[in-house]
Automatic annotation (TrEMBL):
<dbReference type="GO" id="GO:0050797">
    <property type="term" value="F:thymidylate synthase (FAD) activity"/>
</dbReference>
<dbReference type="GO" id="GO:0006235">
    <property type="term" value="P:dTTP biosynthetic process"/>
</dbReference>
<keyword id="KW-0808">Transferase</keyword>
<comment type="pathway">
    <text>Pyrimidine metabolism; dTTP biosynthesis.</text>
</comment>
<dbReference type="Pfam" id="PF02511">
    <property type="entry name" value="Thy1"/>
</dbReference>
<feature type="active site" description="Involved in ionization of N3 of dUMP, leading to its activation">
    <location>
        <position position="199"/>
    </location>
</feature>
<dbReference type="GO" id="GO:0004799">
    <property type="term" value="F:thymidylate synthase activity"/>
</dbReference>
<feature type="binding site">
    <location>
        <position position="199"/>
    </location>
    <ligand>
        <name>dUMP</name>
    </ligand>
</feature>
<feature type="binding site">
    <location>
        <position position="100"/>
    </location>
    <ligand>
        <name>FAD</name>
    </ligand>
</feature>
<dbReference type="InterPro" id="IPR003669">
    <property type="entry name" value="Thymidylate_synthase_ThyX"/>
</dbReference>
<keyword id="KW-0489">Methyltransferase</keyword>
<dbReference type="GO" id="GO:0070402">
    <property type="term" value="F:NADPH binding"/>
</dbReference>
<dbReference type="InterPro" id="IPR036098">
    <property type="entry name" value="Thymidylate_synthase_ThyX_sf"/>
</dbReference>
<feature type="binding site">
    <location>
        <position position="194"/>
    </location>
    <ligand>
        <name>FAD</name>
    </ligand>
</feature>
<keyword id="KW-0285">Flavoprotein</keyword>
<protein>
    <recommendedName>
        <fullName>Flavin-dependent thymidylate synthase</fullName>
        <ecNumber>2.1.1.148</ecNumber>
    </recommendedName>
</protein>
<feature type="binding site">
    <location>
        <position position="69"/>
    </location>
    <ligand>
        <name>FAD</name>
    </ligand>
</feature>
Length: 245
Protein backbone atom coordinates (compact mmCIF):
# COMPACT_ATOMS: atom_id res chain seq x y z
CA UNK A 1 0.00 0.00 0.00
CA UNK A 2 1.25 3.48 -0.86
CA UNK A 3 2.37 5.64 2.03
CA UNK A 4 -0.46 7.82 3.34
CA UNK A 5 0.10 11.57 3.67
CA UNK A 6 -1.77 13.78 6.11
CA UNK A 7 -2.15 17.52 5.58
CA UNK A 8 -3.77 20.39 7.46
CA UNK A 9 -3.35 23.06 4.78
CA UNK A 10 -4.71 23.93 1.33
CA UNK A 11 -3.00 24.95 -1.90
CA UNK A 12 -4.16 27.88 -4.03
CA UNK A 13 -2.18 29.08 -7.05
CA UNK A 14 -3.13 31.79 -9.52
CA UNK A 15 -2.25 30.14 -12.82
CA UNK A 16 -3.67 32.66 -15.29
CA UNK A 17 -5.29 36.08 -15.09
CA UNK A 18 -6.56 38.96 -17.14
CA UNK A 19 -7.79 41.19 -14.35
CA UNK A 20 -7.02 44.86 -13.80
CA UNK A 21 -8.81 47.86 -12.35
CA UNK A 22 -8.68 49.34 -15.85
CA UNK A 23 -11.02 46.56 -17.05
CA UNK A 24 -13.69 47.91 -14.70
CA UNK A 25 -13.11 51.48 -15.84
CA UNK A 26 -13.26 50.70 -19.57
CA UNK A 27 -16.50 48.76 -19.11
CA UNK A 28 -18.13 51.47 -17.00
CA UNK A 29 -17.18 54.38 -19.24
CA UNK A 30 -18.51 52.83 -22.42
CA UNK A 31 -21.94 53.78 -21.08
CA UNK A 32 -21.15 57.47 -21.41
CA UNK A 33 -18.19 57.66 -23.79
CA UNK A 34 -18.98 54.96 -26.30
CA UNK A 35 -16.26 53.04 -28.11
CA UNK A 36 -12.67 53.91 -27.26
CA UNK A 37 -9.34 52.47 -28.23
CA UNK A 38 -6.91 51.53 -25.49
CA UNK A 39 -4.64 54.42 -26.48
CA UNK A 40 -7.47 56.92 -26.16
CA UNK A 41 -8.17 55.68 -22.63
CA UNK A 42 -4.60 55.81 -21.32
CA UNK A 43 -3.51 58.46 -18.83
CA UNK A 44 -1.10 61.13 -20.04
CA UNK A 45 1.73 62.22 -17.72
CA UNK A 46 0.11 65.63 -17.35
CA UNK A 47 -3.26 64.26 -16.29
CA UNK A 48 -2.16 61.15 -14.37
CA UNK A 49 -2.81 62.33 -10.79
CA UNK A 50 -6.23 63.78 -11.57
CA UNK A 51 -7.19 60.77 -13.67
CA UNK A 52 -6.16 58.31 -10.95
CA UNK A 53 -8.29 60.20 -8.45
CA UNK A 54 -11.21 60.05 -10.89
CA UNK A 55 -10.63 56.31 -11.46
CA UNK A 56 -10.72 55.59 -7.74
CA UNK A 57 -13.88 57.66 -7.37
CA UNK A 58 -15.64 55.83 -10.20
CA UNK A 59 -14.80 52.38 -8.82
CA UNK A 60 -16.00 53.45 -5.37
CA UNK A 61 -19.23 54.77 -6.87
CA UNK A 62 -19.85 51.54 -8.78
CA UNK A 63 -19.21 49.46 -5.66
CA UNK A 64 -21.25 51.65 -3.32
CA UNK A 65 -24.30 51.86 -5.59
CA UNK A 66 -23.94 48.23 -6.69
CA UNK A 67 -23.50 48.73 -10.42
CA UNK A 68 -22.03 45.28 -10.80
CA UNK A 69 -21.62 44.45 -14.48
CA UNK A 70 -18.36 46.44 -15.04
CA UNK A 71 -16.67 44.10 -12.54
CA UNK A 72 -17.36 41.09 -14.77
CA UNK A 73 -14.99 41.95 -17.65
CA UNK A 74 -11.96 40.14 -16.30
CA UNK A 75 -10.88 36.59 -15.54
CA UNK A 76 -8.82 34.68 -12.96
CA UNK A 77 -8.02 30.95 -12.99
CA UNK A 78 -6.91 29.30 -9.77
CA UNK A 79 -5.50 25.84 -9.11
CA UNK A 80 -6.79 24.51 -5.79
CA UNK A 81 -5.88 21.46 -3.73
CA UNK A 82 -8.20 20.85 -0.79
CA UNK A 83 -10.30 18.13 0.86
CA UNK A 84 -13.31 16.97 -1.13
CA UNK A 85 -15.71 18.44 1.44
CA UNK A 86 -14.33 21.90 0.62
CA UNK A 87 -15.05 21.40 -3.07
CA UNK A 88 -18.60 20.33 -2.35
CA UNK A 89 -19.17 23.64 -0.58
CA UNK A 90 -17.27 25.60 -3.23
CA UNK A 91 -19.34 24.22 -6.09
CA UNK A 92 -22.55 25.46 -4.53
CA UNK A 93 -21.40 28.82 -5.89
CA UNK A 94 -22.83 28.61 -9.40
CA UNK A 95 -20.80 31.63 -10.48
CA UNK A 96 -17.62 30.01 -11.74
CA UNK A 97 -16.30 27.36 -14.10
CA UNK A 98 -14.89 24.19 -12.54
CA UNK A 99 -12.82 21.22 -13.63
CA UNK A 100 -12.03 18.75 -10.84
CA UNK A 101 -9.77 15.72 -10.74
CA UNK A 102 -11.82 12.59 -11.51
CA UNK A 103 -11.61 9.44 -9.40
CA UNK A 104 -13.37 7.60 -12.25
CA UNK A 105 -10.34 7.95 -14.48
CA UNK A 106 -7.36 7.94 -12.13
CA UNK A 107 -6.41 6.43 -8.81
CA UNK A 108 -6.51 9.11 -6.15
CA UNK A 109 -3.37 9.82 -4.18
CA UNK A 110 -3.44 8.80 -0.50
CA UNK A 111 -3.52 12.35 0.85
CA UNK A 112 -6.01 13.15 3.60
CA UNK A 113 -7.00 16.14 5.67
CA UNK A 114 -6.45 16.13 9.42
CA UNK A 115 -7.37 19.31 11.34
CA UNK A 116 -4.38 21.19 12.69
CA UNK A 117 -4.07 21.49 16.48
CA UNK A 118 -5.09 25.16 16.24
CA UNK A 119 -8.36 24.33 14.45
CA UNK A 120 -11.35 25.26 16.64
CA UNK A 121 -13.45 22.17 17.44
CA UNK A 122 -16.46 23.23 19.53
CA UNK A 123 -19.55 24.92 18.06
CA UNK A 124 -21.19 27.54 20.27
CA UNK A 125 -24.53 29.14 19.38
CA UNK A 126 -27.21 28.27 16.89
CA UNK A 127 -26.90 27.67 13.13
CA UNK A 128 -26.67 30.92 11.24
CA UNK A 129 -25.16 32.79 14.19
CA UNK A 130 -22.53 30.66 15.84
CA UNK A 131 -18.84 30.59 16.59
CA UNK A 132 -16.27 27.88 16.99
CA UNK A 133 -13.97 27.81 20.00
CA UNK A 134 -10.94 25.68 20.84
CA UNK A 135 -11.44 22.19 22.20
CA UNK A 136 -9.44 20.50 24.90
CA UNK A 137 -6.15 18.75 24.30
CA UNK A 138 -8.01 15.46 24.69
CA UNK A 139 -10.57 16.42 22.05
CA UNK A 140 -7.81 17.49 19.64
CA UNK A 141 -6.00 14.17 20.17
CA UNK A 142 -9.23 12.23 19.63
CA UNK A 143 -9.97 14.13 16.41
CA UNK A 144 -6.54 13.37 15.00
CA UNK A 145 -6.53 9.74 16.12
CA UNK A 146 -10.03 8.99 14.84
CA UNK A 147 -9.42 10.70 11.50
CA UNK A 148 -6.12 8.93 10.85
CA UNK A 149 -7.64 5.57 11.77
CA UNK A 150 -10.75 6.03 9.61
CA UNK A 151 -8.98 7.26 6.47
CA UNK A 152 -6.26 4.61 6.78
CA UNK A 153 -8.83 1.83 6.86
CA UNK A 154 -10.77 3.40 3.99
CA UNK A 155 -7.68 3.73 1.81
CA UNK A 156 -6.62 0.17 2.58
CA UNK A 157 -10.01 -1.08 1.36
CA UNK A 158 -9.82 1.18 -1.69
CA UNK A 159 -6.46 -0.33 -2.64
CA UNK A 160 -7.75 -3.85 -1.99
CA UNK A 161 -10.68 -3.30 -4.37
CA UNK A 162 -8.47 -1.86 -7.10
CA UNK A 163 -6.04 -4.77 -6.80
CA UNK A 164 -8.97 -7.14 -7.25
CA UNK A 165 -9.79 -5.48 -10.58
CA UNK A 166 -12.79 -3.45 -9.40
CA UNK A 167 -13.37 -0.27 -11.40
CA UNK A 168 -12.06 2.98 -9.96
CA UNK A 169 -15.51 4.56 -10.10
CA UNK A 170 -16.82 1.80 -7.83
CA UNK A 171 -13.83 1.58 -5.49
CA UNK A 172 -13.84 5.34 -4.82
CA UNK A 173 -17.10 4.96 -2.93
CA UNK A 174 -15.24 3.93 0.22
CA UNK A 175 -13.05 7.06 0.32
CA UNK A 176 -14.01 9.78 2.80
CA UNK A 177 -14.58 13.46 2.04
CA UNK A 178 -11.29 14.17 3.86
CA UNK A 179 -9.52 12.92 0.71
CA UNK A 180 -7.65 15.66 -1.13
CA UNK A 181 -8.71 16.49 -4.66
CA UNK A 182 -7.65 19.20 -7.08
CA UNK A 183 -9.43 21.53 -9.45
CA UNK A 184 -9.16 24.55 -11.68
CA UNK A 185 -11.70 27.27 -11.01
CA UNK A 186 -12.19 30.34 -13.20
CA UNK A 187 -14.21 33.38 -12.21
CA UNK A 188 -14.41 37.13 -12.59
CA UNK A 189 -14.01 39.74 -9.85
CA UNK A 190 -17.75 40.15 -9.26
CA UNK A 191 -18.13 36.40 -8.71
CA UNK A 192 -15.06 36.30 -6.50
CA UNK A 193 -16.43 39.13 -4.34
CA UNK A 194 -19.65 37.15 -3.91
CA UNK A 195 -17.62 34.11 -2.88
CA UNK A 196 -15.48 36.10 -0.43
CA UNK A 197 -18.48 37.80 1.14
CA UNK A 198 -19.91 34.39 2.04
CA UNK A 199 -16.76 32.38 2.78
CA UNK A 200 -14.73 34.75 4.93
CA UNK A 201 -15.51 36.20 8.34
CA UNK A 202 -14.43 39.81 8.79
CA UNK A 203 -15.22 42.60 11.22
CA UNK A 204 -17.23 45.43 9.70
CA UNK A 205 -18.96 43.46 6.96
CA UNK A 206 -22.51 44.50 6.15
CA UNK A 207 -23.72 40.89 6.16
CA UNK A 208 -21.73 38.69 8.58
CA UNK A 209 -20.93 35.19 7.40
CA UNK A 210 -20.03 32.03 9.32
CA UNK A 211 -17.90 29.94 6.94
CA UNK A 212 -16.36 26.58 7.68
CA UNK A 213 -12.71 27.21 8.42
CA UNK A 214 -11.34 24.98 5.67
CA UNK A 215 -13.12 26.77 2.82
CA UNK A 216 -12.20 30.09 4.43
CA UNK A 217 -8.55 29.03 4.15
CA UNK A 218 -9.04 28.66 0.39
CA UNK A 219 -10.90 31.98 0.17
CA UNK A 220 -8.16 33.83 2.04
CA UNK A 221 -5.49 32.65 -0.38
CA UNK A 222 -7.62 33.59 -3.39
CA UNK A 223 -8.25 37.00 -1.85
CA UNK A 224 -4.52 37.61 -1.42
CA UNK A 225 -3.92 37.00 -5.12
CA UNK A 226 -6.85 39.12 -6.25
CA UNK A 227 -5.83 42.05 -4.02
CA UNK A 228 -2.55 42.32 -5.93
CA UNK A 229 -4.27 42.28 -9.32
CA UNK A 230 -7.02 44.86 -8.70
CA UNK A 231 -6.01 47.06 -5.73
CA UNK A 232 -8.58 49.82 -6.32
CA UNK A 233 -11.43 47.36 -6.67
CA UNK A 234 -10.22 45.41 -3.64
CA UNK A 235 -10.04 48.57 -1.50
CA UNK A 236 -13.54 49.60 -2.55
CA UNK A 237 -14.88 46.11 -1.74
CA UNK A 238 -13.57 46.41 1.81
CA UNK A 239 -14.58 50.03 2.24
CA UNK A 240 -18.20 49.27 1.34
CA UNK A 241 -18.77 46.34 3.64
CA UNK A 242 -17.44 43.44 1.53
CA UNK A 243 -20.68 43.13 -0.46
CA UNK A 244 -20.54 42.01 -4.06
CA UNK A 245 -22.05 44.72 -6.30
Amino acid sequence: MAEIEFRSDVTVELVRSSAHDSDVLFAARVSTQGEQTLEESMHTPESRAEDEKRDKGLINYLMRDRHGSPFEHNSMTFYVQAPIFVFREFMRHRIASYNEESARYRELNPVFYVPAPARNLIQVGKPGAYDFVPGTAEQAALTREATIHAVSVAYQEYERMLEAGIAREVARGVLPVATYSSMYVTMNARSLMNFLSLRTKREGTHFPSFPQREIEMVAEKMEDEWAKLMPLTYAAFNEHGRVSP
